[in-house]
């Protein structure tokens, strides 16, 4: 048996039956909190440490929801992550060979 918490049971204890729609909406909310805290840290550098803590909490909630979503899709976040790593490796190959979306790619041209 795994030492991982049962995210679906924790969601039920919170008072919700786990479902994909709610998990996706919560994911969007938490991603917004992560983005907001990052921007606010730039805008208010003296409080950056507080916004970094807020960002960590939002990231934790995102990871929790990722596991909920994975389980609702009959997989795990670890397996989904492995798929993501393989996807990025394939994109790197395409970029190096200038295939598909990378046929005319010359790098990031945006000014920051």
Tell me about this structure:
The protein is mainly alpha-helical and 112 residues long. It has 2 domains: 1-74; 76-106 and 108-112, no CATH class. It is 69% helix and 0% strand. The chain has 4 helices and no strands. It has helices spanning 7-13, 20-43, 48-72, 77-97. Helix 2 packs antiparallel against helix 3. The chain is flat. 8% of the residues are buried.
Form type: flat
Helix coverage percent: 55-70%
Counting structural domains, the number is: 2
First and last CA, distance:
48 Å
Global mean pLDDT: 92
What Rg do the Cα atoms give? 18 Å
The major sheet is characterized as: none
Q: What structural class do you assign from the helix and strand content?
A: mainly alpha
Q: Tally of extended strands? A: 0
% residues in beta strands? under 5%
Number of helical elements: 4
Order of helices and strands: HHHH
Low-confidence stretches: none
Q: Which labels suit this protein?
A:
112 residues, mainly alpha, 4 helices, 69% helix, flat
Topology:
Blueprint: H1 7-13, H2 20-43, H3 48-72, H4 77-97
Helix pairs in contact: 2-3
């Amino acid at each position: 048996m795994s030492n991982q918490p049962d995210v679906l049971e924790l969601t039920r204890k919170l008072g919700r039956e786990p479902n994909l729609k709610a998990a996706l909406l919560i994911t969007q909310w938490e991603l917004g909190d992560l983005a907001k805290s990052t921007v606010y840290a730039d805008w208010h550098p003296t409080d950056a440490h507080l916004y970094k803590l807020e960002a960590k909490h939002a990231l934790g909630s995102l990871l929790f929801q990722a596991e909920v979503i994975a389980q609702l899709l009959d997989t795990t976040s670890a397996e989904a992550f492995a798929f993501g790593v393989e996807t990025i490796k394939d994109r790197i190959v395409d970029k190096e060979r200038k295939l598909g979306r990378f046929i005319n790619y010359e790098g990031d041209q945006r000014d920051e």
